[in-house]
């Protein structure tokens, strides 16, 4: 028996060696010897899967599916045809044989001349509104030998009848003065904008706009903060990449991809290179035949190996489960350690069974947020509470620690009170005092599910209470608490409409003497996030970020409308703070409020002036919260108008040049009197 087994092992090794040898010899994906290289212009050492040829006489003779792929040398420039039914070609700028990409660009696009543009574009169709505008470039034809996604993104050109004030819409002037440059008839008076297609949905497009042109740009090129069309044109002139990884997929009859760290091709037969994938494909039938032969001939060997295999698999599964539990237990241990070290500050700790009793089995659901669902509960004392159950999938444990660490030490009439919490393994809950009037957004925005019945005086009192709550977070505790998510949804109202700041999942604790904090990622809600979290050059991140968020909230409370309104009748009203500032300068202070008294109008005007101060672009131009409270309590006649608000720093820079306001340094306004700010 031993002799037969030895013979079979020798046969397997022999076949395996021959397979490796033949695979290495036939592996046409490896670089060829230097004698097979060819060059044209700046593109040197052209090799498989490309082949340099003379320009074809007839385009009908071209075969886009043939391998090797054809490149042509014309006027010392390497070109590649993308559409074999019309004479459409691109210049080859680089070939990377390490990550299997070729970078091409339309030769009509000239770097440094932003009026030049690619002439290749296809007809557009309009899919469902929620579809992203990606890879919709219908005019470029690529054969099955190339992959486009995810190496490229689409640059979309929009022709708009009205001016659009949105930072995503990049004005193409003075590079392209009218859409006639893009061969759009009878539209020379329209506005032309360039928009990145990634993340931009058809529903985001302004009503007066239509797509007139598109082009590919590279998604791999490192992006800078784009502030002008000239920078976008530089991306057009750089070109975009195509990948010939699909050749591997045809050769292996499976799906393959490139590991960007190792530049190796990995296929679905295992995390290995394409060569080993092909080797395994060749020898696997032989191994199966040998195993079947041995099992049929020597059943006692199978009887010996089978139990050992089962035991080995059981051990591997147990090891995987152990690793998984250890990773999750480390999160639980971190939370437990925090709770033990801060035991003197903690509210009541409840068992999970207590939470179920309070909520009657989670019977009444009040709402759902980013980190879990909120249920109505009742304590044994008879008091109602709101219980937030944190989702395991969305929570890493840090949000739980943030809430307990911050709100657990706060006692203020304008900050929601944390009654208790629950932590049992993966079960985490936060127990708050119940707010019967819900969140502020239900009372200030008009809509079917809202109650827009608060008077201007009540709105003002609520805004003053919110300001006092935030000011207490910044200066009233032994540690400074930065909220980072001030918005209407996170302001709760009790039975007397007293506002309470809530939801501290994104909050940060820092010493009172530290004015600047470091963040690894942007945090907050779009529309309320301070600009310094995006633009690092305008100032550090500090408590002034909460001041900005409060300013946007205050603007919405005063006007009872969103600060960003894509459905506005006039394009100048899309960004409301900019529009309302112009109205104040024109002494048109009617804010679309019906039946308001002179006193209510003064209150509204005061709230808007304070809000405009709070949303200044630079953090050092915003007042601290204690000064905000003083301004809200002062007479409106004592308040001066702040500089004009801007949507992004480029506008601010342009205003500097015209002398409208100086932002090269912080304003010398008396608003920021606190030296610690």
Automatic annotation (TrEMBL):
One Pfam assignment: Pkinase
Bias type Polar residues, positions: 651-670
InterPro entries: Kinase-like_dom_sf (IPR011009), LRK10/LRL21-25-like (IPR045874), Prot_kinase_dom (IPR000719), Protein_kinase_ATP_BS (IPR017441), Ser/Thr_kinase_AS (IPR008271), WAK_GUB (IPR025287)
Span of domain Protein kinase: 360-647
Binding site for ATP: 388
Major localization class: membrane
Gene Ontology CC, one term: membrane
One example GO MF annotation: ATP binding
Region (Disordered): 650-677
Keywords in alphabetical order: ATP-binding, Glycoprotein, Kinase, Membrane, Nucleotide-binding, Serine/threonine-protein kinase, Signal, Transferase, Transmembrane, Transmembrane helix
Coiled coil: none
Topology in the lipid bilayer: Single-pass type I membrane protein
The protein's name: Serine/threonine protein kinase
């Amino acid at each position: 028996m031993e002799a037969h087994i030895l013979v079979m092992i020798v046969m397997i090794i022999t076949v395996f060696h021959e397979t490796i040898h033949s695979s290495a010899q036939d592996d046409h994906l490896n670089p060829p010897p230097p004698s097979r290289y060819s060059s044209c212009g700046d593109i040197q050492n052209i090799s498989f899967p490309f082949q340099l040829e003379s320009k074809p006489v007839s385009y009908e003779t071209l075969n886009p599916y043939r391998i090797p792929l054809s490149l042509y040398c014309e006027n010392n420039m390497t070109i590649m045809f993308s559409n074999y039914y019309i004479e459409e070609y691109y210049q080859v700028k680089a070939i990377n044989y390490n990550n299997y990409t070729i970078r091409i660009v339309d030769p009509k696009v000239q770097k440094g001349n932003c009026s030049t543009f690619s002439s290749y574009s296809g007809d557009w169709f309009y899919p469902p509104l929620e579809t992203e505008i990606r890879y919709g470039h219908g005019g470029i034809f690529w054969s099955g030998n190339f992959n486009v996604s995810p190496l490229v993104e689409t640059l979309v050109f929009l022709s708009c009848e009205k001016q659009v004030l949105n930072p995503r819409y990049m004005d193409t002037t003075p590079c392209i003065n009218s859409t006639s440059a893009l061969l759009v008839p009878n539209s020379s008076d329209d506005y032309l904008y360039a928009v990145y297609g990634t993340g931009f949905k058809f529903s985001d497009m302004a009503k007066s706009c239509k797509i007139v042109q598109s082009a590919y740009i590279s998604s791999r090129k490192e992006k800078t903060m784009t502030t002008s069309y000239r920078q976008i044109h530089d991306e057009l002139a750089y070109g975009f990449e195509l990948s010939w990884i699909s050749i591997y997929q045809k050769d292996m009859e499976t799906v393959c991809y490139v590991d960007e760290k190792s530049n190796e091709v990995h296929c679905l037969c295992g995390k290995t290179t394409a060569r080993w994938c092909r080797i395994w494909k060749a020898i696997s039938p032989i191994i199966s035949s040998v195993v079947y032969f041995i099992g049929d001939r020597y059943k006692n060997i199978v009887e010996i190996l089978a139990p050992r295999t089962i035991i080995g698999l059981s051990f591997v599964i147990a090891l995987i489960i152990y690793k998984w539990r250890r990773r999750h237990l480390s999160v639980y241990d971190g939370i437990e350690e925090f709770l033990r070290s801060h035991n003197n500050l903690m509210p009541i700790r409840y068992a999970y069974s207590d939470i179920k009793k309070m909520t009657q089995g989670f019977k009444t659901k009040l709402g759902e947020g980013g980190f879990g669902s909120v249920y109505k509960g009742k304590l044994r004392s008879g008091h109602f509470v709101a219980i937030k159950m944190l989702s395991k999938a969305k929570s890493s444990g840090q949000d739980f620690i943030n809430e307990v660490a911050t709100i657990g030490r706060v006692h203020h009439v304008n900050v929601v009170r944390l009654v208790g919490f629950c932590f049992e393994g993966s079960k985490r809950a936060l127990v708050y005092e119940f707010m019967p009037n819900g969140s502020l957004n239900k009372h200030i925005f008009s809509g079917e599910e809202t109650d827009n019945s608060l008077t201007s005086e009540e709105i003002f009192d609520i805004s003053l209470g919110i300001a006092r709550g935030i000011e207490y977070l910044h200066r009233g505790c032994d540690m400074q608490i930065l909220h980072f998510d001030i918005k209407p949804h996170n302001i709760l109202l009790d039975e007397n409409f007293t506002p309470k700041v809530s939801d501290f999942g994104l909050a940060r604790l820092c010493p009172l003497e530290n004015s600047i904090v470091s963040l690894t990622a942007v945090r907050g809600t779009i529309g309320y996030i301070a600009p310094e979290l995006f633009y690092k050059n305008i100032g550090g991140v500090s408590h002034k970020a909460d001041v900005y968020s409060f300013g946007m909230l205050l603007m919405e409370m005063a006007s009872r409308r969103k600060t960003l309104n894509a459905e506005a009748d006039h394009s100048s009203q899309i960004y409301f703070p900019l529009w309302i500032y112009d109205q104040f300068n024109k002494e048109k202070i009617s804010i679309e409020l019906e039946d308001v008294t002179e006193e209510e109008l003064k209150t509204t005007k005061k709230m808007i002036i304070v809000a405009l101060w709070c949303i200044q672009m630079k953090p050092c131009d915003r007042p601290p919260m204690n000064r905000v409270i003083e301004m809200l309590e002062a007479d409106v006649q004592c308040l001066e108008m702040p500089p004009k608000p801007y949507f992004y720093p480029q506008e601010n820079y342009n205003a500097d040049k015209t002398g409208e306001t100086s932002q090269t340094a912080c304003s010398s306004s008396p608003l920021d009197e606190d030296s610690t700010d």
